[in-house]
């Protein structure tokens, strides 16, 4: 099930807060924030904290391709498969 930050009261939250929420709820994060989010995700992993996964999608990736990739990931991923990983879409 998809949840948007605005729907859980995190619309203006900083990256560490978003990643902490995602970890507490076992949610993989999908973001356009390719500037800073990965650094904070890496810091969580290095500190031994939970980080269920982060997918970054450049705004240069077409919406159609991003949707295709997200649907494939959703359909074929195993529970916990992306733990501690930062990936960029499209996957290659």
Topology:
Layout: H1 15-25, E1 29-31, H2 37-46, E2 54-57, H3 63-76, E3 86-89
Parallel strand pairs: 1-2, 2-3
Query: Approximately what portion of the residues adopt beta-strand conformation?
Result: 5-15%
The rounded Rg comes to 13 Å
The helix/strand class is alpha/beta
The stretches of 5 or more residues where confidence is low (pLDDT under 50) are none
Total of domains: 1
User: What is the distance, rounded to the nearest whole angstrom, between the alpha carbons of the first and last residues?
Assistant: 25 Å
Average predicted local confidence, pLDDT: 93
Q: State the share of residues found in helices, binned by percent.
A: 25-40%
**Count of alpha/pi helices:** 3
Give the beta-strand count. 3
What is the chain-wise order of helices and strands? HEHEHE
In this structure, how is the largest beta sheet organized? 3 strands, parallel
Instruction: Tell the overall outline.
Output: globular
Q: Spatial order of the strands in the main sheet?
A: 1-2-3
């Amino acid at each position: 099930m998809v949840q948007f930050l605005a729907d859980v009261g995190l619309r203006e939250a900083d990256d560490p807060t978003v990643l902490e929420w995602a970890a507490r709820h076992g949610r993989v994060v999908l973001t356009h924030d390719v500037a800073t989010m990965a650094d904070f995700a890496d810091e969580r992993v290095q500190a031994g904290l939970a980080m269920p996964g982060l997918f970054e999608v450049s705004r240069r990736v077409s919406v159609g391709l991003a949707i295709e990739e997200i649907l494939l990931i959703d359909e074929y991923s195993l529970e916990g498969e992306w733990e501690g990983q930062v990936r960029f879409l499209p996957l290659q």
